[in-house]
Amino acid sequence: MISRCDVLVIGGGPGGAATALLLARAGWSVVLLERKQFPRRKVCGEYLSATNLPLLEHLGIAEVFGELAGPEVRRVGLFAGAIQLHADLPRPTDSTGWGKALGRDRLDSLLLHQAIQAGVEVRQPCSASELTRYRRGWRCRVVQNEREDEVESSIVVGAHGSWGQGALPTQVRRRTPRPEDLLGFKAHFHQCALPDDLMPLLCFPGGYGGMVHCDVGRVSLSCCVRRDELTRIRRRYGSEAGSAVLAHVRASCIGVEQVLANAQMESDWLAAGPIRPGIRVPRRDELFVVGNAAGEAHPVIAEGISMAMQSGWLLASHLNTWRRQNTGTLRQTAANYARAWRRHFAPRLYAAAALAQWAMNPLLVTLSLPMLRLWPRLLTWGARLSGKANCVIAN
Asked: Given pLDDT bands bounded at 50, 70 and 90, which one contains residue 285?
């Protein structure tokens, strides 16, 4: 069976759901494919900076997000060895409030439900196995419940993240594993002594991480570890990767050991990777990408969800303008979107890459500590540089 739509969105995370929702509201017929059944857990820092609050209003989930999310995050911090520092987060210039964190199992379901309410046809769980060009657009082979059919669309939006198998032209092929690859881990904890308003950066040999209160009394701990360092960690602390990583982090950061002293872990560890920071736009013709499929920053800046949703809004704005004005071609629209994406997001990627290299190098961190002790506001400056103020927001 063949069905047709204006836009096919592949991936139902924050970037894909936001794109689909905004396009459907503007009158496009949209089909969204998501290979997992929501709600689902996902490796992610789960924090949304205050610059997203106007966008959440625009998407129609600001009120429920505010009710479900954890406490306001007003300070950033640093846990490195025996050092514990903190400084105020930059407040947005329009005084919209403070950032919060919400578990991906809840946030993704909220956004996808809102997309369905806007008229998006969501197929879930469902995967795209092949995407080919034909004279009127694109034809996608879809697999759902062991049944195959096809969807034809004029426009395709890749919102599948950066971990695809390379089967689709919107995906990047997997590369041979390398020692410097970063692998991601995440777990939730209850009864954690982390101050409600603090989000610390964790610096430890061979990796970095972060902690934040997200919802229902949970604290999210997420981190990245180099592949070669993980091998050494597992030899020292045991073969189970998540537990070994946690033991390494606790031994390397006294602050983590203190706040987790009486904590209880919820469920088991999640692992994913390798994380692939870098810019992947522009794409050709009517193939568009958002979220990590467009470009991925090192998670050290905790801006992954923000960039995904903001890129969805940015793309929807360009496509809606193109359709409304009926001028130019989709190729020109793709080029305009790529330029706008780089202008808005490339600085965050560069800042994240520099910060990640610093955070993973114990010598650099040690040399920087005297300066950070004297001027903890450098942490505030770093947060602003990473995109926690004056970012893309909805009109």
From this structure: low
Contact yes or no for 157/10 (Cβ under 8 A): yes
Query: Residue 87: CB partners within 8 Å, gap ≥ 6?
Result: 75, 76, 77, 376, 377, 378, 379, 380
Which pLDDT tens digit goes with each residue over 49-62? Answer: 988 999 999 999 99
Q: How far is the first Cα of the chain from the last one, in angstroms, to the nearest whole number?
A: 39
User: Hey, which residues does 213 pair with through a beta bridge?
Assistant: 219
- Phi, psi (degrees; rounded to nearest 5) at 87: -155, 160
Distance from C-alpha of 84 to C-alpha of 130, rounded to nearest angstrom: 50
How many whole angstroms separate alpha carbon 78 and alpha carbon 378?
11
Q: Is the dihedral of CA 291, 162, 77, 371 positive or negative?
A: negative
- Give mean pLDDT, residues 363-373: 86
CA distance 5 to 385: 40
Cβ atoms of 102 and 215 closer than 8 Å: yes
Q: What is d(CA 121, CA 195) in angstroms, rounded to the nearest whole number?
A: 42
Q: What does residue 34 show for φ and ψ, rounded to 5 degrees? A: -135, 125
Work out whether the CA dihedral 375, 380, 381, 382 comes out positive or negative: positive
Q: Which helix (H) or strand (E) holds 364?
A: helix 362-374
Q: Where are the alpha helices (DSSP H) in 103-218?
A: 104-117
Whole-angstrom distance, CA of residue 203 vs CA of residue 59: 35
Number of other residues whose CB lies within 10 A of the CB of residue 267: 8
What is the C-alpha separation between 129 and 5, in angstroms, rounded?
18
- For residue 85, the number of C-alpha atoms closer than 13 Å in the C-beta half-sphere is 23
Cα separation, 136 vs 4, in Å, equals 11
Single-letter amino acid, residue 241: A
Q: Give whole-number Cα distances, 216 to 41, 101, 124, 277, 328, in Å.
A: 15, 11, 27, 31, 49
Separation CA 385–CA 229 (nearest Å): 28
| Tens digits of residue pLDDT in 119-148 | 999 999 998 888 898 887 899 999 988 889
Give the global pTM: 0.93
